[in-house]
Amino acid sequence: MWRAAGLGVALCAFAVSGASAAIRDGRPAIGRHAAELCVTTASAAPSCGPAQVDLRRDGSARVRIDDLVYRLQLHSSQVEVVLMHGAVQIDDFTVPYEWVGSSLQFVDDDRKVRYEVRFMKRGGNEPVR
């Protein structure tokens, strides 16, 4: 279930464009990427679905799943997360994050929710491992 799951909102998987990740040294390059967002809650198995990620030069990222957008501001050790549904802010929190290979991972300990943004291989739709 997605971050909005804490608010009782379930996510439907939607198709994404054929954007591909340009992976260098594990971390993706600035630009638009096809990805998979996986969310794990304390009481459920991981729920994963397709996403589009726009990595920006200013250290921010936008993770889009249909009309939900996670606005991420990456600092040296923490990420500020703002979840938007259209023009409405649903949630916000700040937590530590880390890059594990080409995946961006962070955990909201208050709600016991783990997030992982898995970037796709160039020209494919499989997560980079």
Notes on the structure:
By secondary structure, the protein is mostly beta strands. It has one domain (3-119): Lipocalin (Beta Barrel). 0% of the residues lie in helices and 55% in strands. It has no helices and ten strands. The chain has strands at 23-24, 27-28, 31-41, 47-55, 60-65, 68-74, 78-85, 88-100, 103-108, 113-119.
CATH architecture: Beta Barrel
- SSE sequence, one letter per element: EEEEEEEEEE
Distance between the termini: 22 Å
Q: How much of the sequence is in beta strands?
A: over 45%
Task: Specify the structural class.
Answer: mainly beta
How does the SSE layout of this entry go?
Elements: E1 23-24, E2 27-28, E3 31-41, E4 47-55, E5 60-65, E6 68-74, E7 78-85, E8 88-100, E9 103-108, E10 113-119
Antiparallel strand pairs: 1-2, 3-4, 3-10, 4-5, 5-6, 6-7, 7-8, 8-9, 9-10
Compact description:
This protein has 129 residues and is an all-beta fold. Helices cover 0% and strands 55% of the residues.
